[in-house]
Amino acid sequence: MSIYAALGVRTLIYAKGPATRLSGGVMRPEVAATMAEASQFSVDIVELQSAASCIMAEETGWEAGYVASGASACLLIAAAACT
Questions:
Q1: What are the Cα distances from residue 9, in Å, to 36, 38, 40, 52, 58?
Q2: Which residues contact 82 (CB under 8 A, 6 or more apart)?
Q3: Residue 4 CB contacts under 8 Å (≥ 6 apart), including other chains
Q4: What are residue 63's phi and psi, to 5 degrees?
């Protein structure tokens, strides 16, 4: 029995693509494994954001990047950057 069945929550056939309303999407196994590993440690979030920003800049060619909690947070950051 899955955790969702135990809670009485139906699972869906996911054909839309990533959508927060539908739990964001199914994670690849290596992503879930990395998240499980990361959950075993405590870090300074500012230091983590800085490291993530450097990786995003290197991968995209942008000046920097920022990891936020979801689309709404990202839209807020983008709007703030425009002012």
A1: 23, 28, 28, 34, 41
A2: none
A3: 10, 11
A4: -65, -40
Q: Quick one: the chain helix, strand, coil %, rounded to 5?
A: 55, 0, 45
Entry pTM: 0.61
Query: Distance between CA atoms of 37 and 12, rounded to whole angstroms?
Result: 28
Render pLDDT for 18-75 as a digit per residue (tens, 0 to 9). 666 666 677 889 999 999 999 999 999 999 999 999 999 999 999 988 888 888 898 9
CA–CA separation, 16 vs 77, rounded Å? 26
Cβ neighbours of residue 16 under 8 Å, at least 6 residues apart?
Answer: 22
Max CA pair span of the chain: 50
